[in-house]
Amino acid sequence: MSETPRRPDGRPILCGNWATLLLPIQADDRIDFGALDAELDRIVAARVDGVYSNGTAGEFHNQTEDEFERIQAMMAAKCSAAGLPFAIGACHPDPTVSGMRVRTAARLRPAAIQVILPDWWPPTDAEVVDFLAMMAEAAGGVPLILYNPPHAKRVLAPATLGALAAAVPAVRAAKIADGDPQWYAQARRHLAGLALFLPGHHLATGMREGVAAGSFSNVACLSPAGAQRWTDSMARNPDAALLVERRLRDFMDRHIVPLQRAHGYSNGALDKLLAAIGDWAPVGTRLRRPYRWIPADEAVRLRPIARAMLPEILGDDVAARA
Prior knowledge:
Blueprint: E1 16-20, H1 33-45, E2 50-52, H2 65-82, E3 86-89, H3 95-106, E4 112-115, H4 125-139, E5 144-148, H5 158-166, E6 171-176, H6 181-190, E7 195-197, H7 203-208, E8 212-216, H8 219-222, H9 224-236, H10 238-263, H11 267-278, H12 296-309, H13 311-314, H14 318-321
Parallel strand pairs: 1-2, 1-8, 2-3, 3-4, 4-5, 5-6, 6-7, 7-8
Helix pairs in contact: 1-2, 3-4, 5-6, 9-10, 11-12
């Protein structure tokens, strides 16, 4: 395995607080690229550790290839001009389209390219290795991040993930959900060679456990700048960061997760709601049809609650709102 690329301060590129690019969708179902441009400007101004595209909140599963290429080109241009690391999500349920997206992404020279496992039929271990090898070849030397969320048709346990990733050295990181103390013990044992990105509102725990490299962060949906402040605080005052995490989890459990349980809203709908609560960019809550979105009135209702519970995250930040 080649040496891990590093930042000017010596940290690995694949670490810290990464903000997701959310797609502003207009009433006619088109992407609002003007709003997307403004969103990128505010993410860059927040000075996050990195930016990534085409995760769940980026609706990678519901866009054309022309749209995919335009989104990635916009992000690459903005981030490259600002010297900001970026990762491109080349995710697609179809492995053939994934390979096409990886080749497109590689030409933009991102810090990494994120992929998901084929979705129509859960792949066997041998098929996972073959798929990742195909994506590594398409990436042409750009590191890969495997996105293996809890709703994937095949969720890899730490031992399995470690073995499969070791078979394809281009896989340098994984975006996964954490678990109980036993899960953390297994992660320390089997995943030491991977940069692990955990859910944003669990990041302080992941850091304390010595497992997390960072997060592709739902907390950055609330506020990229606030999530960065909190992430930076984990090195200076981990106990205080854990107290913020406790309130973050409480806010999510009491006010966000019930919307999914009661109404079946997707994770992307929840992420866009968080961005509307934070009110830092013209994203809106609308998803591209047929997926349902949470009414904007819900963000208005939850905004003062979030600000009262999470002042460290949602405090005024001139750079993020400029």
